[in-house]
Known about the structure:
With 446 residues, this protein is α+β, with helices and mostly antiparallel strands. The protein is 20% helix and 35% strand.
Amino acid sequence: MMDKLKSVLxxxxxxxxxIQSYFLAYNMPNMKAKVNTEQDxxxxxxxxAEEDAKNLIFPExxxxxxxxxxxxxxxxxxxxxxxxxxxxxxxxxKGFQRDSVGVVDWNEVRREDNGIELRFGRPVPFDLLRKVFxxxxxxxxxxxxxDRIWIFSRADREEVRTxxxxxxxxxxxxxxxxxxxxxxxxxxxxxxxxxxxxxxxxGEVYIPDKPYDGVPQMQVPITRFTxxxxxxxxxxxxxxxxxxxxxxxxxxxxTDGKKLLLVGQNGGWMGYSDPAAPADAVxxxxxxxxxxxxxxxxxxxxxxxxxxxxxxxxxxxxGATSEDNVIRFQQYYGKVPLVSSGSMTFGYMQxxxxxxxxxxxxxxxxxxxxxxxxxxxxxxLPGGNDLRQLINRAAGGERIEALYPAYRPSxxxxxxxxxxxxxxxxxxxxxxxxxxxxxxxxxxxx
Length: 446
């Protein structure tokens, strides 16, 4: 669906370019100017709350290793996830030393030692992690990015070791003066007794040994941001905005002669493009991230919980050349991620940045009611060998980076039904739904 939307946006850009040329020559008779009064032009209005950058960076999951090749996984919707993360955010990590990733036998540590992995789901620069954790920034490679933190205590000695894994897959950074004790690790790992047992074959994908019932099915009322609201938020002067019909019945195009706003999915999704953003510039992920957060704060706000995540592929349509200038935020409901499916694009914001300037901006115009849910049902997601077979089938031979529970949204009138599903994320960043949940037949552990 995302490729389809981008094709529509590309066609719209070409169309608007031709219309603009026609306007210069013939006063653009095919475009109808909106009839606006002076009172219609208003300053940017807050449609959602502003967000602090630090709240958009948190682990995709926590993996607990309990020795004896026993493991469990906590996702952000779990109480113990919040308690563990809060404890680690209060600790200090200093005295970094770079080494090869092979400095430790990670398979042995995974099987034998008590420990915890914080997995972020995408590379995060140290400069951004310092907004979330107390990390010493005064070391040589502080401009590097990491995708996980692994803290463990050795079974044969009274010591705790803390490693930050470089996104290049070849290096690790050990914090030689981390403010953690063996008792801290033991306490954190002790929470694992309250979670399902998970198994792994490759140390990357952890599969529950039994069915998972941690995500309920529900219906949630929705409201919509209107195209007029988004125009006032994105165009300097909404009074000069003109409209045109898109190449699909449910698509409308708005332009002020330079910038472009495309609204599709019957008013449920928008794509914004600003060709004035500088191209072929050197991009810095930290600068682009901070600029993207500020842009959303000022042009629509945040309608719920979001997390910095990995974009599927470089957004070449909008001039993106690397992951450093594609900033994607995954939307959560009840601390459970939302994943698009079928004809409904939903569950994320994405901005393409060029040296701190926004060249494209995509988001849903649907607002989920955060306080009202109806028709709640406990549902079971499969586990064990059944799930393993479904994962292999869904992956189709491609490398899998993560498995996690999510919601598949389905819209009907003024309500969205959230269906629990298992999702895999491939190395390319693409998310694929593995299977949906079924009715509960037997009681399982939480």
